[in-house]
C-alpha cells in the first residue's frame, strides 16, 4: 500500500484538537455553523421530506435527522438524509483550488456517529477538520473525469477516515476503513445538474453513509486490497492519481482554511458573473424592462451553464441566465430569491432569454486558479455598463466577512427554528468544542423547533 496513504491515516488517528492551531479551529467552527444552516434549510425540499418519510418506516434509532419533527434513525440513515438535505439547495461550501465539497460530505456522518456513541463536541470537530484535510489532499491528487461531479468520489474516502477517527480507530484501522471505502465511490455526472436530476444530491449523502459504514466494516473484519484508493481514483472513477504531494505541509497547511463559502444559491462557477452583474446593476440601476440584453463572457466550465429554460428548481441552480435574471428582478440571488417561485415568475422567464453566455478562451486558460467573468448590461436607451473580475468573493483569497456568513446561517436556520432558537443554536455552535456530548445540540434543536 502507498506510504502516503498510511501517513495520512496516521495523521488522522493521532492528531489531537489542541494540535490544530487556534485560527484553524475558529474557521472550522464557522464552516460547521454554515453547513448546519444549509442542512436545516435543505431539509424542507419536497424530495428530501418524502425520502425521510419513506425511510422512517424501517429506521432504527440513535442519531437525529435535522428536520421538522426531529426524528431519530440509525447513524447511517441519519447521515444519508442530512447529507442529501445539505446538497439540495446549492449553498454548501467547498474547496477553492480543486473541485470538491467536503463539509457536507463529512460532517453529517461525524455528527451521526458522535450522537449514537455519546461523543463529545471536541471529538466531532477533530474528526471533521482531519477528514476535511484528507479530502483536500485527495482531491488535489486526483484527476476527475471531465463530466464527473465530485460528490461521492475522493471525498467519500475522506469521510470514511473521519468516521474511523470518530470511532477512535488506530492508524491501521483508519487506513483499512479508507481502503474499504474506495469500493463504495460513486459516478455522479454534472449532466444530472443541468437536467434537474436531484439524484446527484444522493451522492453527497452517500459520503455520510460511508462515513458511518466503512469503520464498521473494518471492525467487522472486512479486508481491502492494499492499493484500493490508488486504483479507484486513478483507473476506475478518475483519469489519474498523483500521491507525491499528499503529505506536503501536513499539519501546517490546513485544507479547511482554503475553502469558499456561498451566498448565492447556485452553482459556484456562476458566482463571478453574478458579482460582475451586481456591479453593473448598481451603476445603471435599471428596471427589468429597461434591459435590452445581458452579455456574459466567462471560463468554459461556467459558460456551459447557459440554459435559458431550466426544467425544475434544481436545474435552475445550474443556469447562469436564470440566476442573472433573478438577481435583476429580485435584487439578489440568495436562498430566498432563487426559490421555486422564481422559476415560475414571468418577468424572470422573459429576462432569461435576454442573457447571452459565451466562453472566453483566455479566461478558460487561467481557470481554476482564477475564475474570471465579464458582464455587459445593455439598456434599451443605449446605455451600457461593463464590469469584470478575476474571481468572485467568498473564498479564502477574497473572503466574506464573518457577519455575512452568520447572517446566511440565521436566514437558513430560521426556516425550521424559532428566532430565539436561531440565536441559541448559533451561540451553541460557537462553543461546540466544549460540548460534553453532541446531544447538547440535538436537544436544543428539538426545544426550539418551529411547529
How would you describe what is shown here?
There is one protein chain. With 451 residues, the protein is of the alpha+beta class. It folds into 2 domains: 3-263 and 406-447, 2-methylcitrate dehydratase PrpD (Orthogonal Bundle), CATH 1.10.4100; 268-389, 2-Layer Sandwich (60s Ribosomal Protein L30, Chain: A). Helix content is 53%, strand content 9%. The protein has 21 helices and 10 strands. The protein has helices at residues 3-14, 22-42, 46-56, 75-87, 102-116, 121-141, 154-166, 171-181, 190-195, 199-220, 228-236, 271-284, 300-303, 313-316, 320-330, 340-344, 346-352, 361-366, 402-413, 419-430, 439-447, and strands at 63-64, 72-73, 94-95, 142-144, 238-241, 259-260, 291-298, 355-359, 373-379, 384-389. The strands form 4 sheets. The chain has a 4-stranded mixed beta sheet. It has a two-stranded antiparallel sheet with strand order 1-2. Strands 3-6 form a two-stranded antiparallel ribbon. Strand 9 and strand 10 form a beta hairpin. Helix 7 (154-166) packs across helix 10 (199-220). The longest helix is centred in the middle third of the chain and has 22 residues, at 199-220. The N and C termini lie far apart (53 Å). The relative contact order is 0.14. The model has no long low-confidence stretch (mean pLDDT 96).
Amino acid at each position: 500500500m502507498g506510504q502516503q496513504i498510511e501517513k495520512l491515516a496516521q495523521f488522522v488517528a493521532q492528531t489531537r484538537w489542541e494540535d490544530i492551531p487556534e485560527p484553524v479551529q475558529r474557521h472550522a467552527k464557522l464552516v460547521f455553523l454554515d453547513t448546519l444552516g444549509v442542512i436545516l434549510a435543505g431539509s424542507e425540499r419536497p424530495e428530501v421530506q418524502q425520502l425521510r418519510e419513506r425511510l422512517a418506516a424501517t429506521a432504527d434509532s440513535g442519531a437525529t435527522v435535522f428536520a421538522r419533527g426531529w426524528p431519530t434513525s440509525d447513524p447511517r440513515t441519519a447521515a444519508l438524509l442530512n447529507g442529501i438535505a445539505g446538497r439540495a439547495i446549492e449553498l454548501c461550501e467547498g474547496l477553492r483550488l480543486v473541485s470538491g465539497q467536503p463539509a457536507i460530505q463529512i460532517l453529517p456522518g461525524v455528527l451521526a456517529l458522535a450522537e449514537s456513541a455519546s461523543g463529545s463536541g471536541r471529538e466531532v470537530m477533530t474528526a471533521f477538520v482531519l477528514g476535511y484535510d484528507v479530502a483536500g489532499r485527495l482531491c488535489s491528487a486526483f484527476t476527475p473525469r471531465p463530466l464527473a461531479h465530485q460528490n461521492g468520489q475522493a471525498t467519500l474516502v475522506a469521510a470514511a477516515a473521519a468516521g474511523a477517527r470518530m470511532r477512535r480507530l488506530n492508524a491501521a484501522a483508519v487506513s483499512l476503513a479508507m481502503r474499504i471505502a474506495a469500493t463504495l465511490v460513486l459516478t455522479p455526472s454534472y449532466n444530472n445538474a443541468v437536467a434537474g436530476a436531484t439524484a446527484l444530491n444522493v451522492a453527497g449523502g452517500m459520503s455520510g453513509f460511508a462515513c458511518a459504514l466503512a469503520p464498521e466494516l473494518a471492525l467487522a473484519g472486512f479486508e481491502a486490497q492494499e492499493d484500493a484508493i490508488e486504483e479507484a481514483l486513478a483507473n476506475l472513477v478518475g483519469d489519474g492519481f498523483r500521491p507525491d504531494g499528499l503529505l506536503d505541509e501536513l499539519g501546517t497547511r490546513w485544507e479547511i482554511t482554503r475553502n469558499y463559502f456561498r451566498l448565492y444559491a447556485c452553482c459556484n462557477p456562476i458566482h463571478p458573473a453574478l458579482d460582475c452583474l451586481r456591479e453593473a446593476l448598481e451603476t445603471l440601476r435599471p428596471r427589468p424592462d429597461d434591459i435590452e440584453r445581458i452579455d456574459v463572457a466567462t471560463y468554459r466550465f461556467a459558460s456551459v451553464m447557459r440554459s435559458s429554460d431550466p426544467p425544475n428548481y434544481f436545474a435552475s441552480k445550474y443556469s447562469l441566465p436564470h440566476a442573472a435574471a433573478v438577481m435583476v428582478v429580485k435584487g439578489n440571488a440568495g436562498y430566498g430569491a432563487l426559490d421555486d417561485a422564481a422559476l415560475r415568475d414571468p418577468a424572470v422567464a422573459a429576462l432569461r432569454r435576454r442573457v447571452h453566455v459565451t466562453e472566453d478562451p483566455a479566461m478558460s486558460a487561467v481557470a481554476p486558479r482564477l475564475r474570471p467573468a465579464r458582464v455587459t448590461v445593455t439598456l434599451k436607451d443605449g446605455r451600457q455598463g461593463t464590469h469584470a473580475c478575476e474571481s468572485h468573493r467568498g473564498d479564502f483569497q477574497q473572503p466574506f466577512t464573518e457577519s455575512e456568513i452568520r447572517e446566511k446561517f440565521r436566514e437558513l436556520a430560521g426556516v425550521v427554528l424559532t428566532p430565539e432558537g436561531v440565536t441559541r443554536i448559533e451561540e451553541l455552535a460557537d462553543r461546540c468544542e466544549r460540548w460534553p456530548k453532541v446531544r447538547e445540540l440535538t436537544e436544543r434543536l428539538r426545544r426550539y423547533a418551529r411547529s
